[in-house]
Amino acid sequence: MMKLSLAIVLLLVPTFAQAWPWSDDMANQISIKPQESVDLKNPGMRPYPKHSVPIPGVSSLVKDMGASEKQLNPIPADDKSVALGGKLFQIYCTPCHGYSGKGDGLVGAKLLLKPFDLTADQTKERSDGFIWGYMTFGGAVMPSYANDLSATERWNVINYVRKVLQNGQSAVAVTPAAK
Ligand code: HEC
After folding, report:
1. Residues at CB less than 6 angstroms from ligand 1
2. Domains and CATH numbers, the chain
3. Which first-to-last residue range defines the signal peptide (predicted)?
4. What is d(CA 44, CA 51) in angstroms, rounded to the nearest whole number?
């Protein structure tokens, strides 16, 4: 009888297993946690600036795709803008659209709806405002980049897409630093 009840107790144990001290050993370590302060004198999260309010969804002063499409690109496509845009494109867009922009990125290959070819006539004929809006609001599958790229950064990316990718040039792959 004693043995049986012990067996039952042991069977029930996994239910409470989360409460064991070693269950969260992996989480409790010296690494810095999200929103944790590295300043010992000021522990905890940095307070928000005065008068700031939380907003839901996408942070954009432009209302929607319709309003976005009509915008004109305010950033001249000079060398500096194109270079900046190229860097950002490689970080944020190549996983799906590929270095060439043709939609042959490694992540894109796994998607049911394949990333569009940004060098195709369809996108060439879109206005800069349309592309800016796509980055801002995202598409059916494509996520929004409004919280990752500033408004100006998005225009720089467009200048890069226009000047380099849509001119048949491929991005130079940034090789990770040699080990
Ligand atoms: C997670 C994968 C993914 C990433 C990353 C991504 N896209 Fe996309 N993109 C897509 C997919 C999929 C589509 C097809 C349409 C859709 O999802 O609505 C698309 C469509 C587009 C279109 C619409 C083209 C047209 O003519 O209709 C534009 C423009 C575009 N992407 C630009 C970008 C830019 C610029 C970046 C980088 C800031 C980027 N995308 C990052 C997946 C991605």
Report:
1. 92-93, 95-97, 107-108, 111, 113, 115-116, 118, 122-123, 126, 131, 134-135, 139-143, 145, 157
2. 65-69+83-167 (1.10.760.10)
3. 1-19
4. 20
Q: Please identify, by atom number, the ligand 1 atom nearest to the C-alpha of residue 113.
A: 12
Contact 97, 114 (CB under 8 A): no
pLDDT tens profile 57-86: 777 889 999 999 999 999 999 999 999 999
Give 22-63 pLDDT, tens digit per residue: 778 888 888 888 778 888 888 777 788 899 888 777 778 899
| Closest-CA residue to 118 (of 104, 139, 136, 137) | 104
Residue 13 Cα to ligand 1 midpoint, Å, equals: 48
